[in-house]
């Protein structure tokens, strides 16, 4: 489409975004290899003769970020990284976060690395921040100091209860640790106790390999513990790093768990979903307590983000779709996630308005639902103070 | 695309549509909640703070139907529902059905509710109507009066034989009742007898819960009974209400059944398929007796209907794709299903003609195949009398 | 889009294509039915009242090929076939191959039929050709003359070693013969021996049915034998003929095998993938030794080829995607596969450049990677001599 005819994204008024699923950014300077490693879900360097900069995500970073540091879009990666070092990580983080258009951050604090805290993100961006507690991380921290299974389970129950007082929600990575094809019902207390004993014993035998919780009985115990708090529960689904078997992360594998957990009143938010996001949209359509996002998928598919968002907006009711960046490590990923979402959403809904399929009034209202209002309602965040600015 | 450049759907001449899979509409007035419930496959009210009107289907209804009742497109739902009550359900049904462009209706009569009969649909629309017999409903009606398994099986065989004399085809909802991953071969008579005895016994013990046939042996017996009549057999695949596990409704799960049933000469039509419709297209491409439709998926995805139809038209040969609305309850769903199909098809094929990928002559011919001619050939309906009007 | 605004594919400079996966073409004249049979993966004639010419592939052949034989695009199939017979298969093959824009052919020589050899393809096209050895075919030829399991296994090891000296790579059709859900680890030598004995015994009992290798132990032995040679290994994934169960050909089913084979240093290339190509793109993104192509899917989806290619270019890094035609039998399929790829790629990347999502320089560089450079690097082909022409 010639530039003159493209709908101007500015024509789609949006409130400050609520990024309902993200992580901290690295506090220290990154060399080229470390920067590139954050552009992929792979745990290995790029294949010989290739680079992760040559990807939709790499091109999206090169499109949106150089101008925020005073460079031309699509300048060579080496120029960008030199300019980044010149400005320093603190200044780069400040510039990128304030330019992201994100007004509120819900931060999963369970990832390793020297990362900014939610409070630091809020300060650097001028927005607000809330914590999302990663269940497996809570379990692992509790296990670090527990001497017995009883200790562990009591400590975990205390930890969940305490988190529920301050956090905006919980998150599970059962997808990575086992897969989503776990038994749907809550595990029996005796089975949980046995599994906890076994895990703690393995941990003392082999602290490296057994540090992570992978037992499906314990993973289910975590999910049900969170469900009973009444806080929203985020579930990783779909693609991510090569720890997982993607074909065991289809959100539809959660169907029986979704049914089983419904009486608790717990709200479930299915993250990412790609390439199974249409299935996530279906679940959001037929189960009142299920919501869906397309966070990670937008950033990683770059110029194709609009196609993914469109697929999510097929079956999912518009009151059920949430925005996130899933940014991790690089402040660039906030900018890219937000810009791709805004631009993709504007192109889609402005196109539908142009065809007569949607009214302009509805388009603006639905855009605000996706950008912020659905997340504010689901997480009980209240209306943004910056909403009228 | 600016309006001036949009291909005019009127440029795509189409015969009166044959809707090869639909249901009756509700005879009585509907309040707002009851109307909204027909806009979703969910069995629960919309989540707090949301409405099913905020969905692609809701927006499509608001686009196409208000003008047929003398209102502006996209007027608020409350205005539309008030106008609907003002005109009365009889007049609304008449107006919407006659405006739908559908000339022949193949009606699955196995759904509950106070619904119009095929004859009433024909009268209200000025078209023709034929019956599709839902196998599970036939089995349940037969079981209602059967005293023994022998009674039941004899009655069922009679019912299938009788239906085959008058109906245009059969339909199975084995997807909902069990899943499509059933054993492919016909069940042994002794196994069928045992399963029938067990089901009838459960029915007398617990008439509510056991009323529905869910035993895979009986479901397979129904399928094979229908296959031997030589009539086309519709199979629900893909998304639908939350009774089903969507991941057990992938049409590819039918592959071995498709192979097994091939020698009977039975034609299979895979309904809906979403989000597995590309797999349905593959099956239609490689098995001569397999056809595919994208009925329900077009209505429920609204502004995205063109994307779904395009995906179906990737592998499926053009002689193998059928149109349907799967309309149920609301006459609005006939209008929406038909308009979305016509508009999506016109945009796709006119676009391909503009690119040079298709010739205009082929485009018009293929459009007629999908709109009516394939269904007329498969169900033996003869050429429409209204074809030249 | 009006013709005047369409990006001109000529604006995307491409090197001569490297077709890294194709087959020979039939040497003899084909009647209409035989020609049509090459337009489908079905093993049966088209359903009554339909023709395989009425498909995206059929329309693509009619778009691109008639002008190369002096006819109008989209002329009736009968005219095209008459002209084809008039010119003779030799001249038709020469015209179509030289017009295809393909400079190098990697030819899987394991398909039956009176097909041109790689050398003949090279001669007819003016390009170069290399052999890809199909593992199952190698095993079957070896079994034809082996008297004992020891004979067979020694002969197979020799055959693999010899092939590795001259071939550009290996190919496995384990997808067709068993499915991709095989055990990931190498089979134990004793198990291989037992399986070989069993297969040879069946072969002498029933030479017809048992001629093909389908035992998963033997199929795994073939894969691991090839992996240890260090040559690239092509794996059929996704759709193909109705021998396979498509739902057992999801490339994600290979995840554990991909992990297991990684230490050998073997490069894996996942062919086709449709409709699971997004999963193939994910695997190419997270595993350094995995590559993906969308060969067969482009030709068979015709006017929709751009949509498939776009989906592959979501997660797959641009250094990991390879072009192929998977042409088999008809020289037309080289033309169609190449044209659809070139046009789809040009439309996509020119569109992204127009939106500002990609730079023009990157677009041209990435296009060359996909068209030829990735394949040259992976198969060690060196730079094309015709590159500067």
Automatic annotation (TrEMBL), chains A, B, C:
UniProt cross-references to SUPFAM superfamilies, sorted A to Z: Metallo-dependent hydrolases
Pfam families in UniProt: Amidohydro_2
Domain Amidohydrolase-related: 186-381
Protein name: Amidohydrolase
């Amino acid at each position: 489409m010639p530039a003159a005819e493209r709908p101007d994204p500015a024509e789609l008024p949006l409130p400050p975004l609520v990024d309902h699923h993200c992580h901290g950014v690295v506090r220290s300077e990154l060399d080229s290899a470390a920067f590139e490693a954050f552009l992929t879900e792979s745990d290995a360097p790029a294949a010989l003769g290739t680079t992760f900069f040559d990807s939709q995500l790499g091109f999206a970073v090169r499109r949106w970020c150089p101008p925020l540091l005073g460079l031309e879009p699509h300048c060579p990666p080496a120029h960008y990284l030199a300019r980044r070092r010149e400005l320093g990580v603190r200044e780069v983080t400040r510039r990128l976060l304030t330019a992201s258009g994100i007004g509120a951050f819900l931060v999963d604090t369970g990832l390793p690395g020297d990362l900014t805290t939610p409070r630091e993100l809020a300060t650097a961006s001028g927005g607000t921040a809330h914590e999302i507690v990663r269940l497996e991380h809570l379990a692992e921290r509790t296990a670090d100091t527990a001497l017995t299974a009883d200790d562990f389970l009591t400590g975990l129950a205390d930890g969940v209860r305490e988190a529920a007082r301050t956090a905006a929600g919980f998150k599970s990575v059962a997808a990575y640790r086992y897969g989503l094809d776990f038994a749907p019902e809550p595990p029996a207390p005796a089975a949980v106790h046995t599994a906890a004993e076994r895990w703690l014993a393995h941990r003392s035998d082999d602290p490296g390999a057994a540090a992570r919780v992978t037992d499906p009985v314990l993973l289910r115990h975590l999910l049900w513990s969170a469900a009973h708090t009444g806080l929203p529960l985020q579930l990783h689904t779909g693609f991510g790093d090569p720890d997982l078997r993607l074909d065991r992360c289809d959100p539809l594998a959660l169907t029986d768990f979704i049914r089983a957990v419904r009486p608790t009143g717990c709200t479930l938010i299915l993250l990412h979903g790609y390439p199974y996001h249409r299935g996530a949209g279906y679940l959001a359509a037929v189960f009142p307590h299920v919501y869906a996002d397309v966070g990670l998928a937008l950033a990683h598919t770059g110029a194709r983000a609009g196609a993914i968002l469109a697929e999510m907006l097929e079956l999912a009711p518009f009151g059920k779709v949430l925005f996130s960046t899933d940014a991790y490590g690089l402040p660039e990923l906030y900018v890219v996630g937000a810009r791709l979402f805004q631009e993709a959403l504007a192109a889609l809904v402005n196109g539908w308005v142009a065809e007569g399929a949607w009214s302009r009034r509805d388009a603006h209202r639905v855009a605000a639902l996706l950008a912020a209002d659905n997340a504010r309602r689901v997480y009980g965040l209240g209306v943004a103070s910056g909403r009228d600015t």
